[in-house]
Amino acid sequence: MSGEPYPARVFIQEVVTRDGLQIEPRFVPTADKIALIDALSDTGVAKIEVTSFVSPKAVPNLADAAEVARAIRRRPGVTYVALVPNLRGAEAALAADLDELNLVMSVSATHNLANMRLTPDQSLEGFRAIVAAARGTRARLNGSIATAFGCPFEGAQPAEKVLGLAAAYLDADLDSITLADTTGMANPRQVADLVAAFRARFGAVPLTLHFHNTRGMGLANVLAALGQGADRFDASLGGLGGCPFAPGATGNISTEDLVHMLEEMGVATGVDLGRLLELARGLPDLLGHDIPGQVAKAGRSGDLHPAPASLRAAS
Amino acid sequence: MSGEPYPARVFIQEVVTRDGLQIEPRFVPTADKIALIDALSDTGVAKIEVTSFVSPKAVPNLADAAEVARAIRRRPGVTYVALVPNLRGAEAALAADLDELNLVMSVSATHNLANMRLTPDQSLEGFRAIVAAARGTRARLNGSIATAFGCPFEGAQPAEKVLGLAAAYLDADLDSITLADTTGMANPRQVADLVAAFRARFGAVPLTLHFHNTRGMGLANVLAALGQGADRFDASLGGLGGCPFAPGATGNISTEDLVHMLEEMGVATGVDLGRLLELARGLPDLLGHDIPGQVAKAGRSGDLHPAPASLRAAS
Question: Which residue numbers delimit the Pyruvate carboxyltransferase domain (chains A, B) (predicted)?
Fold first, then answer.
């Protein structure tokens, strides 16, 4: 009736054991990570970003990247990904036979320097070295553009700059692109405009949207992207993740809240929401704190309650 | 670029001292309520639902309705509203010279019985008595349709039933309609469809959308309604409010998060977000607990941070 052209099917890409766990105050035991990933493999998600092959000094929580990648069960149909910050990480990810490597740099030079200690040119040079290393392997390469919707240091990033970087990624032979709202600054109009501009310029190049819910706009941004035909979304079980600049603020969009919204809208995800909710409800025990995800607390819209006893007695 | 026809201007209707405070565990002193309403009057919101003239036994937190309505400063241009559950409440609200009375019933008969202890016919009969009592006064009458997007006992409510009730409200001479997602069950596709159907049937009858963020979809639902031209939204400072069926779940959409999203999108609200954020940040002291609103914690998207000292030293 509203005429909104939502996609019929959306692909859910789980990032909790990478983006979620990397900033947790305590180390989640390797066996628990493996068990969580194996359980996520059976929920119907399309892709799991398992870990990041990053320096254990930089991210102690993911020091077990190689062990996790080796030990998880690979379910056919699920794509297993690792984030790789540099050639050394890429080599480790290739040695672990992951399906996909996720390369990342920030479109904001200031953020890239702060986060990766690299200039944009140095990052792109690193990408080309990774592409060369992956040649002849079966690994696909995704390129993430961090701070695509704004940088906490520089502010808004012009769409032309973001699209120009995407073009550089594709020139470097990456297979697909993620536009990442690293610190939750995107708004729905900006999302609709940037997704439309991406589609106009790059046609069918696979595009993922990676949103954070830092300012409450996460699912609204999903809706805006859906309205422009986007059909791949990163999300984090329980809404784990977060931003060092916003203490107390929430993190990535919650996988279970995302799947719940899409399924309520009649958009298929292929995900078993019941299983996902069970896993989300187990996170507080694993982590020792509450989670931002809301459907795990409130239940699904369709979970009905008995009418008050007084009414039932009267009827 | 996305071609989404968002309204250029949206009206923000604050409900925190009614919908927010009514279920708080502790009574907020009358003087604090008055001070909060007076401060909200200076933020630029279009309307404030000040209180509810309800039985103090049913809602002890609002037992001071008459005193609050009498003592607040009436700022020209702001519409001051009270919720009225029945003729006695309406008479009290009229005696307090409020600008608008908000009449409410649930489209779900089960919810109406549970919440108001009235059948739908009894509720409509009550509405007609209130219309008669208000005749000749300057008070406008708004009719709220609770559980318009779903009932926690009955589940989904057919759009035809909701629109039929809106028609009955207008036949009874109410001036405007609110579609209320009382327990946060609405999804964006449903919202877009129902708003479009309302517009098709009732043309320019003033329509308010009242959303809760119980399952994280609050601002996505706003976006869906905006896309169909809706331009009046209820919201609660700090995201206060809630649902007795979802312990730990969040309440109404947060006024400051709503205003932040709209202003970031370039949709004018007339609201001073800085003042609103100051008031939201004062709520934890007033109430003794944290608030669900996220921009009060994370800051606005445009609040930039200094680059790390190491970079500044190097540059």
Answer: 10-277
Q: What are residue B115's phi and psi, to 5 degrees? A: -90, -40
> Which residue out of B118, B255, B262, B265 would a mutagenesis test of the A interface target, given it has the greatest number of A Cβ atoms within 10 Å?
B265
Q: How far apart are CA B218 and CA B181, in angstroms?
A: 9
Are the Cβ atoms of A261 and B196 closer than 8 angstroms? Answer: no
- State residue B244's pLDDT score: 67
Taking an 8 Å cut-off on Cβ atoms, the answer to whether A257 and B216 are in contact is yes
Active site residues of B: 243
Closest C-alpha among B228, B160, B207 to residue A2: B228
Report whether pLDDT(A312) > 90. no
Task: For residue B127, give Cα distances in angstroms to B88, B96, B175.
Answer: 12, 19, 12
Under an 8 A CB cutoff, do B216 and A249 touch? no
* Spans in chain B with pLDDT lower than 50: 1-2, 314-315
ipTM: 0.96
For A7-45, the pLDDT digits (tens) are: 999 999 999 999 999 999 999 999 999 999 999 999 999
Name all domains of chain B by residue range, CATH numbers in brackets.
11-314 (3.20.20.70)
| DSSP string across A228-272 | TT--EEEEBGGG----TTSTT---BPBHHHHHHHHHHTT-B----
Residue A44 burial (CB count, 10 A): 18
Pick from B190, B261, B307: CB nearest A187: B261
Of A4, A249, A265, nearest to B298 by CB-CB distance is A249
pLDDT over 60 at A301, yes or no = yes
Q: Tell me, yes or no, if B265 comes closer than 8 A to chain A by beta carbon.
A: yes
- Which chain B positions have a beta carbon within 8 Å of A299's beta carbon? 246
